[in-house]
Write a structure and sequence with these properties.
single chain, alpha/beta, Nucleotidyltransferase, domain 5, 2 domains, six-stranded mixed beta sheet, five-stranded mixed beta sheet, 13 strands, globular, binds adenosine-5'-triphosphate, binds ligand AH0, kinase activity, Anhydro_N_Ac-Mur_kinase, EC 2.7.1.170, Anhydro-N-acetylmuramic acid kinase
Length: 361
Amino acid sequence: MNAIWALGTMSGTSLDGVDAAFLRTDGESISAFGETAYRAYAEPEREVIRRAFGLWPGDDGVAEAAALVEAAHVAVLGPLASGADLVGFHGQTLAHDPGGRGTHQAGDGAEVARRLGLPVAWDFRSADVAAGGQGAPLAPFFHHACARWARLGQPVAFLNLGGVGNVTWVDPAAPRPEDPGALVAFDTGPANAPLNDLLLARHGMAQDEGGLLALSGQADAEVVRAFLCNDWLLRSPPKSLDRHFPDLLAAVEGLSVADAAATLVAAATACVAASFAHMPARPALLLVCGGGRHNRALMEGLAAAAPCPVAPVESIGLNGDMLEAQAFAYLAVRVQRGLPLSAPMTTGVPRPLPGGRISLP
Ligand SMILES: Nc1ncnc2c1ncn2[C@@H]1O[C@H](COP(=O)(O)OP(=O)(O)OP(=O)(O)O)[C@@H](O)[C@H]1O
Ligand SMILES: CC(=O)N[C@H]1[C@@H]2OC[C@@H](O2)[C@@H](O)[C@@H]1O[C@H](C)C(=O)O
């Protein structure tokens, strides 16, 4: 198949807004990166979505959140639509319980297709969960394509620091992402989400800008040690996380806000440090994407804790704010071609598995 221009989107767990990015691809290799766009959620919109966290289709409040997610996507994608052959619409994860009720991304791809007048690939995670996988992380197949696009000569790891963290060890020598030995990927644990929640609860602010507050505080080593004994963190991959990590905010309740922020940063970096034990070999480089790379406290913590050099993905020519949106452009083309989106070493699914569905306008 010839490469097409796919327009991918991500409305992530940290609830900052909708990212959109063009990618030219045949679903295997990257031909070109294109224009990007972003639309922040307004605080009242965030509140509607926040109230729907943990809810499932049909629950009160979900339809309102889904309509808002669809409208925000149509608003950011509308002006770009004429340049796109296909849209990858991830939607907004509201709940994720792969071993139980499944996974829930709000937003109807058929409605987005109708309003944009474009074919839309969506519902990326449910086939994987139905087949016994975690349904997440799904960006790893794209990380593999990125490593090959950058012509990296050695295995590296990609780390996404969003609301939740996820890491992908990738061997760029493997021709296909589903090849055994190509990838090992899993969620590392909470990243920015508890920090954002802390800042909102104590200062009415959306985030610790630049990580300055955390840099001014002192991490409580005892809280971090206790946190690392959590069952989920001790579990081996495959594993994926819901946004809400129990008890983490409660554990820092008695600390000053600066010490609490420093403690949450130390917890997030300790989760990443622990993830290296599950990689087949030490990566040559830890390449960081996602909003957390703008947090100096997180980046300094990682540099101290990782057993390899740490650098933002910009160091190999990628855009760390748009990598997930690009990933869902890449995966959209794979949905269209019926190619696998996941594999045993990414989500724990028993075999490489295609997924997603396409809605035509
Ligand atoms: N300048 C900054 N200073 C500090 N933190 C920042 C900055 N910019 C972004 N962040 C953090 O990164 C978050 C956004 O990251 P990102 O967009 O990668 O997450 P997401 O896509 O919503 O989450 P996920 O990847 O878990 O789905 C913000 O909510 C904030 O916590
Ligand atoms: C269920 C869900 O939406 N998970 C997200 C979340 O945010 C980061 C991490 O947890 C990752 O597993 C996933 O998103 C990315 C895009 C992924 O699937 O690779």
